[in-house]
Design goal:
Structural class: alpha/beta
CATH architecture of one domain: 3-Layer(aba) Sandwich
Strand order of the largest sheet: 2-1-3-4-5-10
Shape: globular
Distance between the termini: 41 Å
CATH superfamily of one domain: NAD(P)-binding Rossmann-like Domain
Helix content: 40-55%
Oligomer: single chain
Largest sheet: 6 strands, parallel
CATH class of one domain: Alpha Beta
Order of helices and strands: EHEHEHHEHEEHEEEHEEHEHH
Strand content: 5-15%
CATH topology of one domain: Rossmann fold
Length: 314
């Protein structure tokens, strides 16, 4: 860690009220920056360029970590492709431009694994990001985020603006979104299995056929990786953040069912989409450039997440 990095940093963290943002805020607070701002949307509307300009002029951050995003699972992406494209693109475009104009020293942009092409060979390497079109159900979101990489790279070339772009894999952990209409796969499965047990149901229905693979990163590990990159990485190339391990959705379901004590049947609804066939990252670049390696196993991470949900849901 860079002991001299944080004391002079006035940090704007967007999305600080969200799932990852809450853990990231706590992680940054441990580094004791000169100031840490995590405004809510009511305090800073990133869709309004004028509001962004005024906020930066008033608070004068010299480091921005852009974690704000409109996100959801396959269902939410299918229902709101226009919103997911527009809001994710415009929030980042406004913020990057106004940060440049305000003389911000460094900009850290969080992208998405959804930006990779649908049929990217496993493991996904950063140089493959442009080798095809993303999986259709989340392409609007993925492309909107990938546009911000282009913006940062072009601003680096023209204005010497120091912006880095990180690609976190699917996140999970305590305090995740467990709303079945908008949640991602792990919280959705946890809720379905726990509630099926409570209601005495004999089966749980899940989307697809269970064959796709995914990689998952525990949220506290993600926050640590972002802090490490913020301190130590200043390059133009995007960087993957993950564990470098994949698990099939079918095996994940079996694992969560066992951990929640569900003993009924798992029914696969093949009329619903699978999403991208496989996802697993090559995480060597993050290890080499800023020493990041995820420390939480899937077994431990799932146990902590299930325990949190049981203690907090009604």
């Amino acid at each position: 860690m860079s002991l001299g990095f944080w004391p002079s940093r006035r940090v704007l963290l967007t999305g600080g009220g969200g799932f990852l943002g809450g853990f990231l805020r706590q992680r940054i607070e441990k580094e004791q920056p000169a100031a840490l701002f995590a405004p809510r949307k009511s305090e800073l509307d990133l869709l309004d360029a004028g509001a962004v300009r005024a906020w930066l002029a008033e608070h004068r951050p010299n480091l921005i970590i852009h974690g704000a995003a409109v996100v959801g699972g396959i269902g939410a992406n299918r229902a709101h492709p226009g919103r997911f494209f527009y809001e994710n693109a415009v929030m980042g475009i406004h913020l990057i431009e106004e940060a440049r104009l305000a003389g911000v020293d460094k900009f850290v942009c969080l992208g998405t694994i959804c930006a990779y092409p649908k049929f990217t060979p496993v493991p996904f390497r950063e140089e493959q990001l442009w080798d095809g079109y993303p999986e259709e159900t989340n392409a609007p979101y993925g492309i909107a985020k990938k546009a911000l990489l282009v913006q940062l790279q072009s601003y680096r070339d023209e204005y010497s603006f120091n912006g880095i772009f990180l690609l976190p894999v699917n996140l999970y952990g305590p305090q995740d979104n467990f709303d079945l209409q908008t949640s991602h796969v792990i919280p959705a499965m946890i809720r379905k299995f726990v509630e099926a047990n409570e209601r005495g149901e004999s089966s749980v229905t899940l989307w697809g056929d269970g064959s796709p693979t995914r990689e998952f990163l525990y949220v506290e590990d993600a926050a640590d990786g972002i802090v490490r990159a913020t301190e130590a990485y200043d390059g133009a190339d995007p960087i993957n953040l993950g564990r470098g391990e994949e698990i099939s959705i079918r095996d994940l379901a079996t694992m969560i069912a066992e951990k929640t004590g569900f003993r009924g049947e798992i029914v696969w609804d093949t009329s619903e989409p699978n999403g991208q066939p496989r996802r697993m990252l090559d995480v060597s670049r993050a290890a080499e450039l800023f020493g990041f390696r995820a420390g939480t196993s899937m077994d431990d991470g799932l146990s902590k997440t299930i325990a949190w949900f049981r203690a907090n849901h009604s």
